[in-house]
């Protein structure tokens, strides 16, 4: 059983990358692998036993030390996101991978559609140094092959993992809930749903829209709670203040899963037309709930078989119609939920971890040809 060293942000850092790395590490541990983490420092201490060291961005000594800590394992899993590491566009990660003597499997969380020249060069260098690069959707793989000068044979698709609920039945409140969750800030598209809420208030039970999640730390540091307050003001002006709720409380995985299961429909109204990986989308499908999403690539791909409805970003009428249909057509909502439940097992963290284990074995088997 190979030993895995993971380089990433890690809890208690509040970001999707940290959540992903912790869940993947737990999935690997559950199938018997030894996992250690080199955590990107953010000023807060980690209580995890798996964290064996921290990377201090901007410190050449720390960059070299991170490579050596990862070299204590058989395989290094490098989480790649441009804004995580030090240097311009996070280019310090190139030096870390360059200092490895063990195979590096890079997990690419963002493939920019129109990268700057430097963003392009950073990712191309990362792929050149890596043994394999994991993308989490076919759309991401196609974009990486098409827009970057990389070795196509290195690209592997492994889905984003999800926690599969152990309980099938969850109480749903009498008032139907439209749910959006995740770190809050501009780009989430919350205003789209608030815009259409007045047209849904005549429906049975008067649906409510729940936005769950803390404001993104970087957004809060730069702008405070301005985005959240603007959306609260928008709901008040639209006359639906009593139908739009914001919950900034912290939820662990279990409570978030229960919340998702309690929703009539999960809404992903994101501004981005480029997003090729969405952990929230995967979690929504894993919860077995119907999804309505704007037409970003990962949503178009995962919802194509009927687990949800995709609407154009600028078509408020289509968004209102999709939400109305899910809440008033039980057969449609049931079919969408059933398709989500059919897809969910393929996304279980145990399945995803097993795929990484297989990839690690292949990397180690192929390594003699590389040295």
From TrEMBL:
Pfam families assigned: Glyco_transf_4, Glycos_transf_1
Molecular function (Gene Ontology), one example: glycosyltransferase activity
Keywords on record: Glycosyltransferase, Transferase
Glycosyl transferase family domain boundaries: 172-342
EC id: 2.4.-.-
Top-tier EC class: transferase
Domain called Glycosyltransferase subfamily 4-like N-terminal: residue spans: 16-161
SUPFAM superfamilies tied to this protein: UDP-Glycosyltransferase/glycogen phosphorylase
Name of the molecule in the record: Glycosyltransferase
